[in-house]
Amino acid sequence: MQPKKIMICDDDRGILEMLELFLELEGYNVICEINSTHLTKQLISHKPDLLLLDLWMPIISGDQLIKIIRSTPEIKETPIIVLSASVDGPEIAENLGANGFIAKPFDLTDITDKINSILKN
Question: Looking at the whole model, is its pTM more than 0.85?
Fold first, then answer.
């Protein structure tokens, strides 16, 4: 069975690298994108099973990206978990149609629990 593919988009390289390492150890195939302007193209070409998305990023913010993803036919069904330190994060994520929200700083157990509940593996 193919490992599930998870894409992470965050402008913080430390968070990207830590999540990549952790999720690979959990058996996932991980694709990282630090530049939010490349995300839509990457989603279309890689077709991940799930996207972990930071809300506050330069150039294109996570909330704008969710709107773009949800209106792009090839990727609109991609499950999205929003990662954010924003107090409004859960409300923003829900209003935009994200599948989940995890507050930063996060606990890695929360991330795997949320991923597993969405991917149902």
Answer: yes
pLDDT tens digits, residue range 80-105?
Answer: 999 999 999 999 999 999 999 999 99
Q: Catalogue the long-range contacts made by 24-27 (C-beta closer than 8 Å, 24 or more residues apart).
A: 26/112, 27/3
At residue 38, the pLDDT reads 97
Own/partner pairs for 55-61, CB < 8 Å, 24+ apart? 55/82, 55/83, 55/84, 55/86, 55/89, 55/92, 55/93, 56/84, 56/85, 56/86, 57/9, 57/10, 57/11, 58/11, 59/35, 60/36, 61/36
Residue-range domains of the chain with CATH: 5-119 (3.40.50.2300)
Print the SS3 string covering 8-20.
EECCCHHHHHHHH
